[in-house]
Automatic annotation (TrEMBL):
Pfam families linked to this entry: HIPIP (PF01355)
Family under the similarity heading: Belongs to the high-potential iron-sulfur protein (HiPIP) family.
Biological source species: Alteromonas aquimaris
Function: Specific class of high-redox-potential 4Fe-4S ferredoxins. Functions in anaerobic electron transport in most purple and in some other photosynthetic bacteria and in at least one genus (Paracoccus) of halophilic, denitrifying bacteria.
Keyword hit for DNA repair: no
InterPro entries xrefs: High_potential_FeS_prot, HIPIP_sf
Name this polypeptide is given: High-potential iron-sulfur protein
Record domain High potential iron-sulfur proteins family profile: where: 29-97
Subunit structure: Homodimer.
Keyword vocabulary terms for this entry: 4Fe-4S, Electron transport, Iron, Iron-sulfur, Metal-binding, Transport
Keyword Iron-sulfur: yes
Length: 97
C-alpha cells in the first residue's frame, strides 16, 4: 500500500482541480470566434448580425453571456461562438427584468 496515502491523494486532487479550472478557462477563451451567418446553426436560426427590430437584439436576449459593453459576446445557443450584440436570431427571448 506504499504510495496510497491521504497526503498523496490530496496532492493529486488539488493539482487536478487546478488543472481542470485553468484548462477550462483557457479553452473558453480560445474557443471563441465570431459567428458567421454561413454557419449551419446560424442559418437554421436565421441569425443576422444586425437585428431588423431595435428592441429585439442579442444584447437584451436571455441567452447572451459575457460582460456588458463588448460588441461580440458568447451566446448559449451558439457554443464556442461570439454573436454581435446588435444581432438577432429566431431563438431570441427577452431577458427578464
Amino acid at each position: 500500500m506504499a504510495g496510497y496515502n491521504r497526503r498523496n491523494f490530496l496532492k493529486i486532487s488539488g493539482k487536478s482541480l487546478i488543472g481542470i479550472t485553468l484548462g477550462s478557462a483557457a479553452l473558453h477563451t480560445l474557443a471563441q470566434e465570431q459567428l458567421q451567418v454561413s454557419d449551419p446553426t446560424a442559418e437554421a436560426l436565421k441569425y443576422t448580425p444586425k437585428s431588423p427590430e431595435a428592441n429585439a437584439i442579442c444584447g437584451n436576449c436571455m441567452y447572451i453571456q459575457g460582460k456588458e459593453g463588448d460588441e461580440h459576446r458568447p451566446c448559449a445557443i451558439f457554443p464556442g461562438k461570439l454573436v454581435n450584440v446588435n444581432g438577432w436570431c429566431t431563438a431570441w427571448v427577452k431577458r427578464p427584468g
